Amino acid sequence: MEAGEDFGPWLARQLKLTGKTQAELAEELKLTRAAVSAWITGRSVPRPTVMGEIARVLGTDVSTVHTRTTDTQVGLPLTWYHRRGYPDGGRDGGNAAAFAFDADVQVLARETCQNSLDERLVENGRPVRVRYTIHELTGEKLDAFRKAILWDDLHPHYAAVSQAASQQKVGRVVDAGVRDMFEKGRLVLLRIDDYNASGLTGDDYDDGKFAAVVRRQLESLKSGRGAGGSYGLGKATLWATSALGMVLINSTLSVPHEGRTERRLIGRLELPWRSVDGNAYAGPAWLGRPDPDTPGAEVVRSWWAEEETVERLHLTRDSDEPGTSFLIVGAHDVASLDQSAPERDIDEEGGSDEDGTRDIRAMHRRLKEALGRDFWAAMTGGGSRLPLLETTVRTFRNGEEVIEEEKVDPIVTQPSRTRALRAFYEGATVDRLTEAGQVALRTVPLRLPLSGGRRGTLGTHPAVLLVTEAEDADGVPNQVHSLRGNRMTIKKSGVAALPLGVNAFQAVLLAGHAAGESVPFAEEAEEFLRAAEPPEHDRWGQTEELTLRWSHTAHHRISRLTTEVNTAVKDLVVRPKHSGAQGSAKLQKALTVSRKTAATTRRGSGAVLPELDGLDAEIGESGEWRITAEVKLPRADELPTMTPVVLLDVRSGSRPRLDWAELVAVDGCEVEDGVLRFTPRARRATFRGATDAASHPVRTALTRLVLELRAGKGE
Question: Is residue 594 pLDDT above 80, yes or no?
Fold first, then answer.
């Protein structure tokens, strides 16, 4: 049961809402003004019989006065406040922050789930629970919802935007959203509920989480030390995903505001500049109760809603657990529509064009995919580590279940990586992979720079690298997923210059707090890597913040970390070149790097030539040689082109030349018509290829291979 607000502040607000003064209330109650003043200041409270009289004067019931968990319904009604146009004539064609992201539910899932992770209540040790609900409305259900959001009051503004749609990108999206709602007779609502989160605490206008989300742009007030967001842009995905530019909000607060915690409601609308009935409007609008403290009570603020109002707005929460519900009105997923095949009657989710559920089923599937791909680590626990996150997705149409609620399970979506992380948490890792299912652990150094442009190293943070064999359900093999404190996947990258024949693997890099709270320089690494992320939080590299706080070369520390990771991965997954196995030894003896030109690595002009420095090969299923070669590059501004030539070694006579069936660049070079062109200032290059088995004069197993690197076209 929610605790009521103190009587004095509650009564003061009711007087403002009804436009009454303390003196007028005292007169109607036939009491002195001093008595009312004592209530307002908290020096005393009225007797129960007087509370009944106060209820009569305020036009409400006695229980409302006694419980004080909601405002009276007398006075200023709910309304939309549209921000007036700028006095200097400036115009905004929409919220620029929304253009930082695509109208894509997978982007939405990434940003909103990250925000919920950042606001998790950590004291109780429980995960934050995030539920995504897709709900399509048609017919009477749609009409009732439009009435609840005061559509008739909004229609002139949408009409003005549609009229100018050809001149505004945002206007064209909004116009299409309105036409879709009326022509198809449907509206898709997408609600994101989080539980065990802080909620939108703070005043409507002063600094706090509420104002940062609802009132302001480019402001990020996060609770956790390892917070994912830092730009204040992630919330813009909510409005970007709405074809109508509308988001309604219901928050249950972890810290009371005005003595209350439940059903704090507000709505925000993002439209471009428009003119309605001769009045110019700047863009945004808010749904709420007029604030008596603003001039003319024109500006609206959040209000404490009744359960009936919350239900009409489709914002009912399951419990009184703190957190926030965001309702995206007119949700659209451009990427989902692009991937759907209109020529098919039935899509892969089982919905059809005839029953109209294909789009929402595709949206459901893509939400699940994104959550499993980006937040598998946050949903994984083991040992003493508990999961940070639980996520579910469900889909309705007019209140009827289309797809039942499904929990996203990291074991299903990312089995190998989940196994690796659990092994780390449980202390079940090994130094090297020798059996199926094992997880190898290595530490790789992140050398943190000194801040303020100073030369030197603050310290070395030992990031944790986990490597295990890949399974089919993991998706693309041979990938490294990098993450930090909030355990959202930040960076996905392949490992360059892997030799042919390597067993498929998956790797996880844990940095900052993800490597462990007690790991040296975990806090500093967390701060450094967070500053190295762009607004999309999908990589680590050069950013403006990194340059301003550290230096313009600070990102080189991250490049070195990547090099260390790739080296460690290859050491763990590449089979040793000199093993005791007889077959491997025989194959090594069959490989030769030609040193024919080693004595003449300088041409007549004095230029230094690239030189073969390593060779690995195996015999393919069709009898071809499959080769991976490394080239050592000299220091030079311009390097000559070189041609790799593969020959068969013979005891006498000329060596037969084999044809290439495939020749591709891996790193530090490009291949053009069989010729290698090297990347300027690179120190090493790697290429791989496969011979044409038809050009082999004898069976491959009976031959020895020679690889030469010749200048020019290799003739």
Answer: no
